[in-house]
Structures are given as C-alpha cells and as structure tokens.
Specification:
Length: about 300
C-alpha cells in the first residue's frame, strides 16, 4: 500500500518572494519563515544563493541562515536554491543542510536562468554532488520546465525521463519535476509521473506545480494518484520566476494541505497556524492570496471559535 503521509516543502520564502514587486527586508523574510515553521511545515526553502543583480529580492540569504542557526528553538529542515557551483559554496558557507540545484529540460530556459545549456547544468550538478557528499550536504535536483518551456515550447518527456534516471542513480536526495510556468495538465502529469514511478519507484521523486492555468491542484492530485508523496507549494500561492515569462504563483500550501487532509492524507501541518502564515505573507508582500480555499477555511475557523 502506498503511504498516506505526504511531505510538503514550502518554497514561498524563495519562489514566492523572488518575483514580488516589493522586496522584503531580512527581518520580514525571517518572520515569514518562522511563521511557516510554526505551522509545522516539514521543510522550508528559505532563499536562494544567486546573483543579487539578477534577483535583488534574494540578497542576504546568508543572514537568514545565520539568524535561524542562532535560534535554538528553530528545528525545521531548511533548503537553499542554487544555480551553480558558486551558489553551492555560498550555501555551504552559510550552513545550509540541503541545496536545491536547478536542472533544465530545455536549453532555452537553462540559458535564460543560469547562462548554461542543459548538459552544462548537469555537469555542474555532478560536480556539486561530489563535493556535497564529502561535505555532508543533501542535494535536491529540480528539473525546471519539466512540462513546457516559455522559450522552447512543450517539453519532450523523454528528456525528463533521461535526466531523472541519470540523477536518481546518483546520490541526490530527491529529484523534483517543476512545472515552472504552470502549463501542465493532469493527464500529462499522470502519464509522466506514472512512467517514472514504474521505472524508479516514487520515494525520491517530488513535484512542483504553479497554478497559472488553475490546474495546480488537479496536477497535485494526478501526481498523487501515480504515487508521488512529496510536493513543493507556496504559502498564500505566492510565486513565479523572473526569468520565465508567464510564470505565476505556485499552488498554495493551504489549498494543498486542505485537499490532502480532507482526502485522509497526513501532512503533519497545523492548518489554522498555516492560515496565520498565509495572512502574514499577504500583509508583508501586499500580494493577493492565490489559494481560493482560504476564504472557506477561515469561515470554518471563525464558526469553530464562536
Ligand atoms: N551567487 C551570487 N553571485 C553569483 C553567483 C551566485 N550563485 N553566481 C555568479 N555570481 C555573480 C558573479 O560573481 C558575477 O558577479 P560580478 O558581475 O560582480 O562579477 C555575476 O554573478 C555574473 O556571473 P557569471 O558567472 O558571468 O554568470 P551570468 O551573468 O551568466 O549569470 C547566474 C548566471 C546564474 C549567476 C545568474 O543568472 C543568476 O543568479 N540567476 C538567478 C537564477 C534564479 O534565481 N532563477 C530563479 C529560480 S530558478
Ligand atoms: Zn517554481
């Protein structure tokens, strides 16, 4: 029997904030990370180590790591996104326990995002893995544009299958399929995830969906049906990639958790506290919440409080 436990990584403090018109201060970013951790989210992507010229909102991610390390009560596993070896070195020096290295299913996206082609990004990942293994740091490999690329069009699934196969044979802790621009449909998701799970099992596979075409939750369900038990999502549905035209918010963590828990899955997440974190994300960024379930959830909580 496949597991009823589903593990969520909230990527809001990275994917969510990197694309906001309003750049948050380090203290504001920390408040958001702490609020998400208070809701018992099992893992948080707290920022990225990328060029501050390319993504000004992520400058100072090392200060976030410093502050969390100094807080003994903060026990949530954290991740930093990196685009290259330099990012790995910054993340390691900041004390990150895990890094998300970005791979690509198209050369167009690889070039725009990291100034490399697909195979150069793979080679760098192999080098990072070798070093990370020696240094005791986990590597998650996220394949960007796994379904469609804003520059090169629909992704050939065999490219994703090959990349997944190659990296699952290595020491990566997880391979995540990212629908960077939110273009996938549930049938496509079901086909790709079930093929991958047949070959490799689902334990080290995850999915990362954006909700651009309002198919995010349906895509989570399709992947779940195939046996995927790890998802990235973003508090308040914040999200987007500055280098992928048309990318909008990730599927909202509160919507994913509500759906999973209602279906009898166990996320370990405290939904009322998650809604507090979502309110905070909204207050800090001024962005409209992307999760449509929130209004209904808040009404239920108010009724219970009466
Ligand atoms: N962190 C911080 N600075 C970095 C860096 C990193 N990981 N990698 C490179 N740099 C710096 C270089 O030192 C150089 O600085 P300088 O201009 O002061 O000399 C500058 O960035 C450009 O480096 P270069 O190696 O010539 O690469 P590039 O211009 O092709 O840029 C990236 C490549 C990856 C650094 C840049 O495109 C980037 O950071 N992109 C962000 C990707 C991202 O966050 N996407 C969204 C999430 S997937
Ligand atoms: Zn994303």
């Amino acid at each position: 029997m496949t597991s009823q436990r589903v593990t969520i990584t909230d990527v809001g403090p990275r994917d969510g904030l990197q694309n906001q018109p309003k750049i948050l201060t380090i203290d504001e970013r920390l408040m958001l990370v702490r609020a998400i951790a208070t809701a018992q989210v099992p893992r948080i992507e707290v920022g990225s180590f990328v060029s501050p010229k390319a993504v000004p909102a992520m400058a100072g991610t090392d200060l976030i790591f410093d502050a969390l390390a100094a807080q003994s009560s903060f026990q949530t596993p954290t991740v930093a996104l990196i685009p290259n070896m330099k990012g790995y070195e910054f993340a390691r020096d900041a004390g990150a326990e895990a890094v998300t290295m970005v791979l690509y299913a198209s050369d167009g996206m690889a070039q725009k995002n990291a100034g490399m082609n697909m195979s150069e990004a793979e080679d760098v990942t192999v080098d990072i893995l070798r070093q990370a293994n020696q240094e005791g740091i986990q590597v998650i490999a996220t394949i960007a544009v796994a379904f469609e690329c804003p520059f090169d069009g629909p992704t050939d699934p065999t490219i994703v299958q090959r990349t997944v196969g190659k990296f699952l044979q290595s020491e990566v802790s997880q391979v995540v399929l990212a629908d960077t621009i939110g273009a996938a449909d549930p049938q496509q998701v079901r086909d790709l995830t079930s093929t991958l799970i047949k070959s490799h099992g689902g334990e080290r596979l995850g999915c990362h969906f954006h909700d651009t075409r309002a198919m995010g939750l349906a895509n989570v369900y399709a992947a779940l049906e195939s046996g995927i038990r790890h998802f990235d999502s973003s508090i308040g549905g914040l999200g987007g990639c500055p280098f992928a035209p048309g990318a909008s918010g990730n599927v909202a963590t509160e919507a994913v958790v509500m759906m999973l828990e209602q279906m009898g899955f166990d996320t370990g997440i405290d939904l009322p506290l998650l809604l507090d974190a979502s309110d905070l994300a909204q207050t800090l960024t001024g962005a409209v919440s992307g999760g449509r379930s929130k209004v209904w959830l808040q009404t239920q909580l108010q009724k219970q409080a009466l």
